[in-house]
Amino acid sequence: MISGRIGSALLLASTAACFSVLVNLYLSNAGTFSQPPGTVFVEVPDGHKTPTMRLKSERAPNGEWLLRIETSNFAFTELCVNRTDRAQTGHAHVHEGDRKIGTAYVPVFSLGRLAPGRHEFLVMLRAQDHRAVVGGDGLIMERITITVPTPRDHRRLS
Question: How far apart, in Å, do the first and last CA atoms of the chain sit?
Answer without folding.
Answer: 40
